[in-house]
Amino acid sequence: MTENTLDITQIRKDFPILNRKVNGNPLIYFDNAATSQTPKQVIDTIVDYYSNYNANIHRGVHALAQEATEAYEGARTKIQHFFNAAKAHEIIFTSGTTHSINLVANGFTAFLKKGDEVLVSAMEHHSNIVPWQMLCERTGASLKVIPMSKEGELLMDSYRDLLSDRTKLVVCNHVSNALGTINPIQELITLAHDAGAAVLIDGAQSSPHIKVDVQKLDVDFYTASAHKLCGPTGIGMLYGKSAWLAKLPPYQGGGEMIAEVTFEKTTYADLPYKFEAGTPNISGGIAFGAALDYLNSIGIEAIEDYEHDLLIYATKQLSEIEGVKIYGTSKNKTAVISFNIQGIHPYDMGTLLDKMGIAVRTGHHCAQPVMDYYKIPGTIRASFSFYNTKEEINRFIEAVIKAKKMLR
Ligand SMILES: *Cc1c(COP(=O)(O)O)cnc(C)c1O
């Protein structure tokens, strides 16, 4: 499909930030894998909440509390539908993917013992490594790594060999933030289940770009961060199958998560509230729902096609620049390009691009093991969204060529 399927000129009008200048040049925002920009529909939702119905949820009988509760629970239903979960109570509001993973890792302390194994892929974000290392330290279980190829694809034969009756949990990202690889998680999940293991998929990088159906995947846990989905920071979700969430002990204690409290004993609230202690990010939750409405109004399939087009276009042009090496060359990729230019430190390139108004990320992208694998300190990462254009890519390519001349 081509650009004609989406009215990008119109879409860009929804994002006030895209009008600003950086260092005297129109902003080109290619750091979408770190966080996405926010459309005015979402900004307006937050303003509307604080202007018109700011109140604590679930407890009050007054009108504002009821309106806030309705909007917050309405957002939970929107998230349920976006990911096609069977039940609204399978969606837990968290502060984001990191919180979601920690919630599950903490709960699994009750289920693991010495000799058990947790499998993690070689291309994970630190937030899908460290909580599992901490879990293994607490329980005596061991962490095993599913290796990857130079192209940035999981070695599925090695994965099959690693699976055994000791495997209790398999954790993997759906899409790698460092490489853009879309992992074959359907197969990964089926194989894990055959071995009797549960699966958590980190969806921080997939949910903004490709259609996700948690029931079809039959995944046990799935995570997302609103700030990568055109929503605000500090809010996200954990999807868990009812049966798992019922078994999993609560993560934090406090208000909202209880049924009854005495000094002798406390009983916990039903799902999802068992995992939602304290006053949540109410405006954030409601705005998360508004962000999903916004993405749905464009259509996630149309976004996927358009962004794929940008990826192919930019990859081709970038590859033609002498000395460029792209990391992550899997056939199945989202619109993330991690690259280096021979003899140039990624940080220097990032700094010069910023001078020309172009925002890219440089460094290890919270995935140091991936950089270690390629024996590099980091990469320059350009990551696209549906509000980016080929004109912006042209300007980016010119800027890379110019910066390269200045640095060599
Ligand atoms: C961004 C990201 C995370 C961390 O998400 P937070 O919103 O910072 O909690 C985890 N995994 C992947 C793949 C990511 O891209």
Gyration radius, to the nearest Å?
Answer: 22 Å
Question: CATH fold name of the largest domain, please?
Answer: Aspartate Aminotransferase, domain 2
Provide the helix percentage: 25-40%
- Classified by CATH, the class of the largest domain is Alpha Beta
Please state the overall shape, judged from the principal axes of the Cα atoms: globular
* Number of helices, counting only DSSP H or I runs of 4 residues or more: 14
User: What small ligands are held by the chains?
Assistant: pyridoxal-5'-phosphate
Our estimate of the beta-strand percent is 15-25%
Structure in a nutshell:
This protein is an alpha/beta fold and 408 residues long. It is 39% helix and 17% strand. α2 (40-52) runs antiparallel to α10 and α4 (97-107) packs parallel to α5 (130-139).
Structure explained in plain terms:
It is a single chain. By secondary structure, the protein is an alpha/beta fold. The chain folds into two domains: 3-30 and 299-407, Aspartate Aminotransferase, domain 1 (Alpha-Beta Complex), CATH 3.90.1150; 44-297, 3-Layer(aba) Sandwich (Aspartate Aminotransferase, domain 2), CATH 3.40.640. It has helices spanning 8-13, 40-52, 63-82, 97-107, 130-139, 156-162, 185-194, 214-217, 242-247, 282-298, 300-319, 346-355, 368-374, 390-407; strands spanning 21-22, 25-26, 28-29, 91-94, 117-121, 142-146, 167-173, 198-202, 221-225, 236-240, 258-261, 266-268, 324-327, 336-341, 358-359, 361-363, 379-383. The strands form five sheets. It has a seven-stranded mixed beta sheet with strand order 4-10-9-8-7-5-6, sandwiched between helices. The chain has a four-stranded antiparallel beta sheet with strand order 13-14-17-16, with helices on one face. Strand 1 (21-22) and strand 2 (25-26) form a beta hairpin. The longest helix has 20 residues, at 63-82. The structure holds pyridoxal-5'-phosphate. The site of pyridoxal-5'-phosphate has 13 residues, from helix 4.
